[in-house]
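Intended use. Records like the one below are meant for learning the mapping from a protein sequence to its folded structure. Do not use them to infer anything beyond what is encoded.
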Amino acid sequence: MPTQFEVLFAPAEFDALRHRDLSAAVCVVFDVLRATSSMITALANGAAAIFPVTEIDEALARWRQNPEVLLAGERDGVRIQASQTGGVDFHLGNSPREYTPERVRGKTIVTTTTNGTRALRACAGARAVLVGCFLNLPAIARWLQHTRPPQLWLVGSGTFDQAALEDVLAAGALADLVWPVWGKGEVADSARMARWLYRQKGGDLEKNLAVSRNGRRLLARPELQADVAFCCQQNIYDFAAGLEPDGAIRRWPEA
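Structure written out for the chain above:
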């Protein structure tokens, strides 16, 4: 089957997805530092579902409907505080190390982040939307190789309005895994660029993420420094996860 394969680097590109016909496409969304890494970690540690929303007010509205949900997310990299919500401190920030089994097992989480949740929502019209990070890339590759979508878009959430090095490297790593199939089709230069970058720089992820804009910002905060090394781990969770019709992210069974 002929295939199309593209990597989207920055928010302006994923915002444009709303104007594309995505009915045959699968999107894999990356926000490695740290939204998608936190989502996958939460599901690995037993969270029942995660609802990504774009605005703080949306998260608060869901919490008021069901006070049992956990509020999670960040603005400027830091957990959302009562001063930003009119009086409610969020339960969790955006560090994957916060999402321990003791805190999240069996829980529904509502999360809002600066770019990651916006990227996920931008892909809502796709045939399927997966959550991507270094922690579970082989499981995503297996799912893709089993389902063989004709269109594959790897979507980097970026930093503010710019591309993010860590997301491009993760997209390149996944591109490398699926290249035997999608590399034979209609491949955008962006997919080749991401794969080439990963093959050049993927041997020392922690070193290279440390010089990224997000990496430097996290390393400047002692309480968040360990997040960079955590998010560089590869293949520690053996499942794929993605958006479901009700808008929740859940673990998917093995394809």
